[in-house]
Amino acid sequence: MIKIALFASGSGSNVENIYHYFKGHPQVKVAMVVCNKPDAYVTTRARNLRIPLTLVSKRSLEDTGSLLYILQQEGIDFIALAGFLWLVPTEITAAYAGKIVNIHPALLPKHGGKGMYGARVHAAVLAAKEKESGITIHHVNEAYDEGAVIAQFSCPVYPIDTADSLGQRVHALEYEHYPRVIESLCTAL
What we know:
The chain has helices at about 15-20, 40-50, 60, 65-75, 90-95, 120-125, 165-185, and strands at about 1-10, 30-35, 55, 80, 100-105, 130-140, 150-155. With about 190 residues, the protein is α/β, with parallel strands linked by helices. It has one domain (about 1-185): Rossmann fold.
């Protein structure tokens, strides 16, 4: 059984979607959620879904040995970031090289980097008058949104779009494609 850890900082809708996708899967299991915000709604989702939850502070994340130890003790084979807003320490990206991925709500390399998440990304896409947006699933390395691209899926940007309306279409792409890409990567391990 391949055990996945999901890292999240916000509401956790992608965490819940990924959990349901893999529920009862013969090869892959969501084994834990790692969150950096104790009051984030993802903590409630994790508890409701009975997924073991690990809370990390900035200080504990910087003490990379402790989180890496927890991941290894839990037998985590693969990490998927699902709205995790902090940079993952190099020791963890090195230990999980090729086995840690992120989803970004735009077509990288455009509109990525530190501070580019959620509605900020959609507003930047609209401000740039892009004709399409979408999602990028990529490997995680020591820099924000600079790991090798695994897959991209696009949707149109309409002249009447707001950050919210574009965000809804991008989120639909996340729900549809992220679990499938995670599955293909995990089953190839």
